[in-house]
Amino acid sequence: MRFILHLDMNSFYASVEELQNNKYKNKPIIVSGYTKRSVVASANYIARKFGIRAAMPVFMAQKMCPSLFIVTPHFDLYHQYSEKIIDLISTKFTNNIEIGSIDECYIDITNMVNSQYSPTDIATIIQKTIKVNIGLDCSIGIANNKFLAKMASDYQKPRGITTMYKNEISVKLWPQPVENMLWIGKASAALLKKYGINTIGDVANDNNQQLLKKLLDKNWHTHYQHANGIGSDQLDYSQNVPKSISASETFLNNTNDFEEIKIKLKELTCDVIKRLNYHQQKTKTISVCIKTTNFQQLSKSYTLTNCVDDYNSIIVTVMRLFQKYFLHTTLRLIGVTLSNLFENKNLKISSELFDDYQHDINNTNKIYEHEIIEIINKKMAKNILSMAIEKLK
Description:
Helix content: 40-55%
Shape: globular
Low-confidence stretches: 347-375, 389-393
Number of helices: 16
Radius of gyration: 25 Å
Mean pLDDT: 87
Largest sheet: 5 strands, mixed
Strand content: 15-25%
Structural class: alpha+beta
Number of strands: 12
């Protein structure tokens, strides 16, 4: 028996926008374009209280909530957050992840379940870890196969954790209307209801098999099995290799201090290279992104001739981009992104990252010993390097 989680980020696009801009906090917002034909891509839960839903025309949403904030989508930003979530799960918990879309994934936690941690315990820890480290909420479904796990994650939103094991389907699955069932489209649901199949329990009913064959053709048996709690527990890991890797951080106070920004860029570069090595990849395109004090987001990129994975090559490009385009800008946030990624067949050992980093520091003579210690301490618990130095003294 396997234990599968389905993790679904709550109101993902809108939640990212709220996280990025304090003026949207506790306000009804939607992510959408501004044309007459625009539809809602995402609505936060405050907007949903007014009846606003995804795919609804924007003009209708505005009528339902005149105080609505309409936010232009920032898809690059959403992809960065999506990658952060997957990286966090894979580094802290397990790499047994199937990416479903930008805001959802399946996680096989079978090997993590033991006498100390139940599947619900693990789901709770993952949910809290994402909230603490990234600032976003999610709902998690727990089951023994992918179909039931995904149905469970929809059962309670936002911030829900729901089990849906086979012995629970008569209570949690069967009473739901047939249009709630995964992979039953609107047209199929309408057709089924026309012939008296109104709930998922009706799809599961043995007495309706012949009717299902007639109405759903060759797909009937898959839907029938799903309704009876039978589904695949095998995850597809082919989508797990990231298309880009990014790291960013918001400054405690807005700054244009070059030394402070440079230290942060070096930390972020170490972070993305560590993840680049984890995924056994090299990069050709390096980007620096910023957010100004008025929340304007800007990004500049440079594509190298060759693929690289070493600190020196990447930090030199990062610093050149920053100095050329953003040197005198007062910043709220700074970030580094590696894209145009390729498989690394000659992966360097991780210790070389620190060798390159030290070499860079020696060359520049700009970061002093206490700054190096501070940076490394941030990556390790309990100021362990400072404590070791004190003992040596």
